[in-house]
Amino acid sequence: MKGRILQVCAVGMSVDKLLSPLLKSIKDEGFELHIACADDGNIEKLRERGYIVHNIHFERKISFVSNLKSIRQLYRLMKLNKYDIVHTHTPVASILARIAAKLAGIKNIIYTAHGYYFHEGMNKKQYNFYYQIEKQFARYATDYLLLQSKEDYQLSINKNFKKSNRIIHLGNGVEIYNKFNPFIIEKEKSKELKKEFNIETTDIVYTFIGRFVREKGIYDLVEAFEMLAKQKPNVKLMLIGGLLESERDQEIKEALHKWKLNKNIILPGFRSDIPILLDISDVFILPSYREGLPRSIIEAMAMAKPIIATNIRGCREQVINDYNGYLFEPGDIKSLMSKMLDMNVHDDKRIKMGIESRQIVEQYYDENKVLQKQIELYKKL
């Protein structure tokens, strides 16, 4: 056995969505792998796949009593199993896990910032507060800092979050040859889905993937789509995803009820057949207010789709405006609608942008390269 590694993430769904390829690579390399996360109904699924999973309750916000309980649970787990490496993900869980790891005397603590919590959409006071938290925890409670976004990486170097040899630009990626590849999709399955969702051959399908929360810009997207539909009847909006049980509130319940009544809005829920759903899509849209380096955009680019996204960290790293898609300012619903309209009326441009997306992915977002960086770091430690 090469060593014992603990991966820490907020909830089981995040483990599955963010870490599945990494988990497989860790096991394939012969490391002993443990996972710590809160049970949102996915822990048993992870255990069925052969993983050792520890149920640790995490609040998705700062809550002193609850956070202290999480630290205590993690500390006991780490002292018991004497991990060689603790690798943390997601903002709150990472802070609590790094505190526990320092207290437990863990020698190698790694933090992957999938996107720093502070962002340009915050007011100055909020920004400085979260900036200092990220910086101080990186400096004093992290041995290696991994950044998915180039902007986060450059900021970390420029602002001396750690010594530069302890800061690694990780990037992000997907399986672009055997999974997210438009050339291997079974077209019969695509036809079946189109029939299931009542998508006509003349329809232009705009697709979103993510949690149904305000910061993802989903309300802006639906409003822009409704404006577009008044001009162009041949449109469909596919909203893939939903909410965790802990996130459900009255606002989204009312919105979902309204969206379900719109025959042009498709709500498939959480799905595992994302490549096929993207295959029947024409344009991918991510109108977020905050991101790291969104995997959903990479998946859509790999499937040769043009992208419309907000001009924020992460998205502007993936989308070259007027080349493989369009960027617009967060919250600018009229601009979003105009970009959607442009994609609707210019078929050749839309197809060309999709081809450019695929080429960018092949050059920069191959998952195997991202995984290899992490495995090499584990071996080194």
The CATH architecture of the largest domain is: 3-Layer(aba) Sandwich
Which stretches are poorly predicted, pLDDT < 50 over at least 5 residues? none
Number of strands: 13
Q: Main sheet?
A: 7 strands, parallel
What is the radius of gyration computed over CA atoms, rounded to a whole number of angstroms?
A: 21 Å
User: Please, how many domains?
Assistant: 2
Q: Note the overall shape.
A: globular
Measured as a percent range, the helix fraction is: 40-55%
- Biggest β-sheet: strands ordered side by side in the sheet: 3-2-1-4-5-6-7
* Proportion of residues in extended strands: 15-25%
CATH superfamily of the largest domain: Glycogen Phosphorylase B
Please state the structural category. alpha/beta
Mean pLDDT over all positions: 95
Strand-helix topology:
Layout: E1 4-11, H1 12-28, E2 32-38, H2 43-48, E3 52-55, H3 64-81, E4 85-88, H4 91-104, E5 108-113, H5 124-141, E6 144-147, H6 150-158, E7 167-169, H7 187-196, E8 204-211, H8 218-231, E9 235-242, H9 250-260, E10 265-269, H10 274-279, E11 283-286, H11 295-302, E12 307-310, H12 315-318, E13 325-328, H13 333-345, H14 347-364, H15 367-380
Parallel strand pairs: 1-2, 1-4, 2-3, 4-5, 5-6, 6-7, 8-9, 8-11, 9-10, 11-12, 12-13
Helix pairs in contact: 1-15, 3-4, 8-13, 11-14
Describe the structure concisely for a colleague.
The chain has helices at 12-28, 43-48, 64-81, 91-104, 124-141, 150-158, 187-196, 218-231, 250-260, 274-279, 295-302, 315-318, 333-345, 347-364, 367-380, and strands at 4-11, 32-38, 52-55, 85-88, 108-113, 144-147, 167-169, 204-211, 235-242, 265-269, 283-286, 307-310, 325-328. By secondary structure, it is α/β, with parallel strands linked by helices. Helix 8 (218-231) packs across helix 13.
